[in-house]
Specification:
By secondary structure, the chain is mostly helical. The chain has a domain of about 200 residues: 3-Layer(aba) Sandwich (Rossmann fold), CATH 3.40.50. About 40% of the residues lie in helices and about 10% in strands. It is built from 17 helices and nine strands. The strands form four sheets. Strands 1-2-3 form a three-stranded parallel sheet. A two-stranded parallel ribbon has the order 4-7. A hairpin with a 2-residue loop joins strand 8 and strand 9. Helix 3 crosses helix 12 and helix 14 runs antiparallel to helix 15.
């Protein structure tokens, strides 16, 4: 019996590449990705695509059309009445940095539903001018209270550099801080209700995760520090070998389970209760929250209003393209397809034109911040190209599989 020549896969990705027929995203997309990963062999949970070629994200987009949104809003009102005015000056928390979704969520909760949200911001690694201005406009426009936080600068830089070189994941520790900071603020200030914007099902995670109270203990609690790798380095080595103080690493370590349960924190998604259409949240944020898109499109895609905050984000999406064969344009196209804003033919053209575009606008700024030689980085990324996704033709890397 002749065995088929199976190409090596990195990151535990599925050997067979399958694209959703309706959203064009492949089954290589990480799903509920664990941020404490530490090597390329760690198996990832990836997007599920059914036998008839449909992803969970598409399935949920059709479910949304059948949802009774008046009934969902009544559920929201009951939830808000349960918490309204119960915790002093603020009665809920909205994490965000003033992007369109967090701006919309905080403003609607305050001015339509009469809540008193405290906005909580984990500061970007390298703010863009546009991102910082939108953040200021957001807080000012709604007269929102805000608590902003960030890690120790040297530790943040060390871990970001380490995660970039060891994992090709420039956003690993930022994502951890971003996820954990609102939880810790909620526990510290005894405000147990947290509202995010769109649901996880909107972004392609399993429909089953789109429940009314997502208590994701994977990110919010941790009892065994031996399981923790930050920047691809074991937690104990960060302390013993690299002499980093435990307290300075605490921003990236969740609450323990007892403390989390005691705080009775509820993490909700406003997109479960209200019909969430990103284009509409953009228009709302422009009108009510002083949000302004950039005058130029974002590297790697065709949009001007998403991911404006952090210079590192464009580089991060480029590394996602290297590791998983999925670029930023594919993520944006998938969203627009789910909302019936573009045709499948338009989507394929946009992916072909923009996916994997080099992040030239902020690339040198990011490399300078990380003290990484740009030429070294461009060679280094090739170590993370999974052979089942990539091949070299005429000395240029090409994807083996595309949706167009």
């Amino acid at each position: 019996m002749i065995k088929k020549n199976r190409k090596k896969t990195l990151f535990g990705l599925p050997q067979k590449v399958v694209f959703c027929k309706k959203t064009l995203v492949s089954n290589q997309r990480p799903n509920s990705e664990i941020e404490y990963k530490h090597n390329s062999k760690t198996k990832k949970k990836t997007m599920f695509i059914s036998k008839n070629g449909l992803s969970d994200a598409w399935i949920y987009s059709r479910i949304k059309k059948r949802i009774n949104w008046k009934k969902r809003e009544s559920e929201l009102l009951k939830l808000l009445d349960k918490h309204r005015g119960k915790y002093g000056k603020y009665d809920c928390i909205v994490p965000g940095s003033g992007g369109k979704d967090s701006a919309y969520a905080a403003h609607v909760l305050k001015y339509k539903y009469g809540m008193s949200p405290l906005t909580v911001t984990w500061s970007p690694i390298l703010y863009t001018d546009y991102g910082y201005k939108n953040f200021q406009n957001w807080v000012k426009s709604g007269n929102f209270g805000n608590i902003s936080g960030s890690a120790d600068k040297e530790v943040a830089k060390f871990l970001t550099r380490s995660s970039t070189l060891n994992l090709l994941h420039p956003f690993q520790t930022f994502i951890l801080g971003q996820k954990l900071f609102p939880i810790k603020i909620a526990a510290q200030h005894e405000i147990p209700l947290i509202f995010y914007g769109d649901s996880t099902a909107e972004r392609g995670n399993p429909v089953s995760e789109n429940n009314t109270s997502l208590r994701n203990k994977l990110y919010h609690t941790l009892n065994n520090l031996d399981e923790v790798y930050l920047g691809g380095i074991k937690y104990s080595d960060l302390i013993k070998k690299f002499k980093i103080d435990r307290e300075l690493l605490s921003d990236f370590i969740p609450l323990n389970l007892d403390m989390y349960n005691k705080s009775k924190i509820e993490v909700r998604h406003l997109g479960y209760y209200l019909k969430w259409i990103p284009q509409e949240t953009f228009y709302y944020a422009v009108k009510h929250c002083g949000f302004k898109p950039r005058p130029f499109r974002t590297d790697g895609t065709y949009t001007k209003y998403a991911g404006l905050d952090d210079k590192v984000e464009c580089v991060n999406y480029y590394t996602i393209y290297i590791k998983f064969g999925i670029g930023r344009a594919t993520y944006d196209v998938s969203q627009d397809l789910r909302n019936d804003h573009i045709s499948i033919d338009e989507a394929k053209l946009l992916i072909k034109k923009y996916d994997g575009e080099f992040p030239k606008r902020y690339f040198n700024d990011v490399m300078n911040y990380l003290d990484i030689d740009p030429k070294y980085f461009l060679k280094h990324v090739n170590k993370f190209r999974s052979p089942h996704l990539w091949k070299k033709i005429n000395n240029k890397w090409k994807l083996r599989h595309t949706p167009y």
